[in-house]
Amino acid sequence: MAVTIALFTRDLRVHDNPALLAAVREGAGVVPLFVVDDRIIGSAHPAGNQLRFLSAALAELDAELRCAGGQLVIRHGDYVDAVDRVAAQVHADSVHIADDATWYGRCRARALRERLARRSCLLHTHSATLTAVDPFDCASRGPNDPVPDFATYFRRWLEVPKRRPLDTPTELIVPRVDSDPVPKFDELGDAAVSPQLAVGGEITGRALWRGCTADRRQPRDPSSGDLTREGCSRLTPYLHFGCLSAAEMVYRTDMATADGRAFVRLLARRDFRLQFLAARAGIARSGDRPRDRQAHDPVAARAWCDGRTGYPIVDAGMRQLAAQGWMPERARAIAASFLTTTLRVDWRVGADHFRRWLLDADAASDRCTWQQAGRLYRGALGTAERYDPQGNYVRRWIPELASLPGSEIHRPWHHSVPTSVYPAPITGTTSN
């Protein structure tokens, strides 16, 4: 019988999964496969939060596949070698995989395609799996046309026909194939994790999405929202790992409401960043502002990482990151701007810290955050007064300052707070 492989990467779901559905429809048998890539797991700075989230997401995916009569096949090792060995074992005719805009993902897919071709096995990539639409449908109109600004991109994005959510496979026939156990977190590494980490997985993510929709908590544009209103922005880790489908979310969101339109705009911005990264692969490490490179002050950098800079609005965000592996997009922008503009620390130091702790650490989104850091910065006090006017966000994450009234929580130096309780401003000045 014809056998296909559904190769999961960042699309850890059974709902609205183009690669999985195509593999099921093409072959009499299908192998749902996930490879624990040694190059990623064994990196010098493992992301413990992401590994724990991944472990839970794989367990939920395996459970859902078993409900349809299948199972998730796990292999460890070199990515290309592992897929090739499974293809040889089951005599696969083809492999289906989600398209990936990252440089690493594209290089990996190219190497896999070349290896599979040696055994006459085809590799099919599927767009609009990790994104709401194929980002390149909204990209340049000609070979010399640069990446458009977001406003232009968004107009094109709205014009692209949005596909309906795809069927969920209800019956799987998986041929006999060797599989490693679904990995538990402690088997993936011993990196530190946040104590209040969200649980990964499609089942968990869809329940959270239903709750957001029912409570009408879809987020406004973060540039105009306050830090205490998180809403559906909590879904970003589930989008990052593909536990939720951006295409399905766009299709099912009510565009007649202001919150719905703002939520769809956020999903479009996510597509834009992925397309921007694909067009400028080098930005992931070198950036597009090379003259902004600055010195590394280890004392200032450590205070920033630990949430001990003496500026409450900055420290609150960094403490939330340490506790939950997540922080609102506006808090990320504030922290990034403070590090690069006020402390004059190289942006790569902050980007590496975010990558290590953020559940939704994404090369495209994170690099855009750091490339834009400081460009619209009003200083720590200015941003605090705009985005946390009553101090409720700071009060939650810096309880030692909770007794300070209203917006005064942003100026603890006015209230003689002992440095044994909360540090003095690291810059030695309280000016904005």
From TrEMBL:
Q: Which UniProt keywords apply?
A: Chromophore, FAD, Flavoprotein, Lyase
Q: Which organism is it from?
A: Nocardia gamkensis
Asked if the keyword Acyltransferase belongs to this entry, the reply reads no
Biological process according to GO: nucleobase-containing compound metabolic process; response to light stimulus; response to stress
Record-given protein name: Deoxyribodipyrimidine photolyase
Q: Which InterPro entries does UniProt cross-reference here?
A: Crypto/Photolyase_FAD-like_sf (IPR036134), Crypto/Photolyase_N_sf (IPR036155), Cryptochr/Photolyase_FAD-bd (IPR005101), Cryptochrome/DNA_photolyase_1 (IPR002081), DNA_photolyase_1_CS_C (IPR018394), DNA_photolyase_N (IPR006050), Rossmann-like_a/b/a_fold (IPR014729)
Superkingdom of the source species? Bacteria
Could you say which residues bind FAD here?
263, 360-362
Q: Name one Pfam family in it.
A: DNA_photolyase
The note on the cofactor says: Binds 1 FAD per subunit.
What does the record give as cofactor?
A: FAD
Which Gene Ontology MF annotations are present?
Answer: deoxyribodipyrimidine photo-lyase activity; DNA binding; FAD binding
Where the record annotates domain Photolyase/cryptochrome alpha/beta, the positions are 2-131
Q: Can you tell me which family this protein belongs to?
A: Belongs to the DNA photolyase family.
Q: Which PROSITE patterns match?
A: DNA_PHOTOLYASES_1_1 (PS00394), PHR_CRY_ALPHA_BETA (PS51645)
